[in-house]
Amino acid sequence: MSRKNFMLSPASCAHTDLSSQLGCHLRIHLRRSMEQQVPGGGAGAAGDCELEELQLPTLDLEHDELTEQLVAACRDPGVFRLVNHGVPCDLTARLFRLTRGLLELEPASKSNLPGYFWGTPALSLRVKELNWVEGLHVDAALTSPAAEGDEAGDAYSAFRKVVTDEYVPHMARIARKLFDALAGVDAEQRTSYLEERGGTFRAYRYPARDPAAAVQYMGMEPHTDSSVLSILNQDLVGGLQVLRDGSAGWRRVRPVEGTLVVNLGDMMQAMSGDAYRSAVHRVVAPSSPGTERMSLCYFAFPEEDAVICHPSGCYRGFSYREFREQVQADIKATGAKVGLARFRLHP
Ligand SMILES: O=C(O)CCC(=O)C(=O)O
Ligand SMILES: [Fe+2]
């Protein structure tokens, strides 16, 4: 397959700074050593009520000054809230309902659903044991795999249709609009740095953990996304947390009805020569009995073979395919994602 070489033009870089490569279709897990170092990291991490709120920038997708606001938010903190995004509330509600219906099936039935996973959809057993989440993974570029022709199969087909025909097109539209506003890149870069065909969708359910249990599970361990950008639609339970620099530690992201949360991924950080940030985040599963958290997440990626490079020369040119394969190899070897550090030229 041909490898294309791309570089953001200096003019566009001046006001954009795309960064962060999403490694694979998997999230990338940070080295365990980092988890130990961060305040509140590791098992038994602080629940939401114990943490200060991260005051996220709120961006209006249709605002005339979207680019300026976006650039500021992407430089710091690399996460923002999005309003006026055009995703109908009833679509979100329907998708939450369909997801819940599937994930409430008996384990024997749901484990046969296409894309069902328990724990982290990564390769390491250690990671699998750590996370307290289940979900459904959909690769939007692929046609729907056949589900069993029974009740569960029919429910899955209804879910898959809403994901593919309704929800993902909204996500792809939003990702494109944000990316183009941010990048200002030429037409070829526009299509290669953010591929149009699909992206990855995951619906998650974080069951309540038992706060008295000897082993405390995280929900989802600290990580950066490998994506260009990720769009999260969370319910009102809370649990998403972002790691801030220095001694600030973890901050909670308060759920706000009707808004989306966007975080940049590793591919965007690389595209921007480190000007934009792929924020470290995690999810703490709820601890009140009977409470569960649900979220709908969309991950936008570059074309697999487009070579990502930036005039700053922070990183050697690399493709998303290389990044993904490196992430998979690192997870297999060590149980954790190393990520962009593998491709960095200057410390
Ligand atoms: O469930 C969430 O809100 C976040 C999930 C997440 O960070 C991920 O899938 O990479
Ligand atoms: Fe993530």
Task: Give an account of the 3D structure.
The protein is α+β, with helices and mostly antiparallel strands. It contains ten helices and 16 strands. Helix 3 links the parallel strand 3 and strand 4. It is globular, with a radius of gyration of 19 Å. It binds 2-oxoglutaric acid and fe (ii) ion. Fe (ii) ion (FE2) binds next to loops.
- What is the H-and-E element order? EHEHEHEHHEHEHHEEEEEEHEEEEH
Largest sheet features: 8 strands, mixed
Strand content: 15-25%
- Total of DSSP H or I helical runs spanning 4+ residues: 10
The order of strands across the largest sheet is 3-4-12-9-14-7-6-5
Ligand inventory reads: 2-oxoglutaric acid, fe (ii) ion
Instruction: State the secondary-structure class.
Output: alpha+beta
Question: What is the overall pLDDT average?
Answer: 83
Proportion of residues in helical segments: 25-40%
Radius of gyration: 19 Å
Which geometry do the CA atoms define? globular
Q: Measure the end-to-end span.
A: 31 Å
Low-pLDDT regions: 1-43
Q: Tally of extended strands?
A: 16
